[in-house]
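To assess whether ligand presence alters the predicted conformation, the chain was also submitted together with glycine. Input:
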Amino acid sequence: MKRINLIAGLLFLTGTTSFAQQTVTQPMSQLIDEQFNFAAEQYKVLDQRIPAGLTPQSYDAKKDKLIAYDIKWWCSGFYSGSLWYIYEQTKNKEIRKTAEKALKVIEPNKTFTGNHDLGFMMFCSFGNAYRLTGDPAYKEVINSSAASLATRYRPEIESIQSWDKSKYWKCPVIIDNMMNLEMLDWVSDHGGDARYKEIAIKHANTTLKNHFRPDFSSYHVVDYDLTTGKVYRKATWQGAANCSAWSRGQAWALYGFTAMYRSTKDQKYLDQAMGIAHFILNHPNLPADKVPFWDFDAPKIPYAKRDASAAAITASALLELAQYSKGKEKTEFVSSAETMLRSLATPAYRAKLGENGGFLLLHSTGALPLDSEIDVPLIYADYYYLEALSRYKKWYL
Ligand code: GLY
């Protein structure tokens, strides 16, 4: 498919005044090149602000303060991963050096077993580094990370435990965890222990059984009782309500089941991904620019905050799902992803050079009910934006 939606006039938001009406009509090839050239410059600004040994997460505009975290935070791999995507498109040597430096910072995570996020942390980073360089040392790090992640598999519930037991949860599994299966599949498919892929399949099947509602929306958290092996309760942590559709959770589910189909070719994963895509794209609360509110059931829509990260993840997933689709569905998935990317490329969402602490995108929401990361840049929004732009260029130009 060459070009979809050649004339993409984007009408921003009916019903709110927080975003100006904007139009982006340039060809996608030009838009994508511009975004990567911008990213190469903007990330030099970001790099200068990062304290040694930490990884960038967000930016507090009021205090002009970069928010950076310890490498054990689930987002620690997105910075180096973003740099590798920028390097791939620009061949900028300085960016590559920075990417290599960022990998060294997070390498000790390869033996970390304290959360389920090893896929995010080590595959978005070292996975891209290995894809682009073929350096066997990077593959070793990925193999070790998969072994660490596999320690969190709980046979009693046929799932990987997300967070440790706490006063809130017995054995929680969150929908986000679908994103960590890709690394397990990849390692088994590239000469590693076959058990990792078996774990990924078991986890995906349990998620399929327990996380979804009949309309293909998902619960955020399913809490299990390890002594009985049964579901204890279904709830949320970052969503508006236990019964709501937290937007980034729907994006993780879409991406995760699409990736599981890539690796297994099991039709039920593809059917699930299709159902989730239709849930998102046909939702009456999806705004005209297709950048979701932070929860599809958020109070105060259309005045609720957006989540640019959900748009970037969804766009990237839709572009892959379109690879496994035909006809009208394929056209719809690519054209919706294109609308999301064009929206994110406008000044309504894309920062200006030197601003936004050096991050690319504005207006993401991390955890609104926890009063955390509301309407801010987030490193993973940048990562999936760059990935989606790369995918569009690779498959649809
Ligand atoms: N995995 C945590 C989040 O999406 O916020």
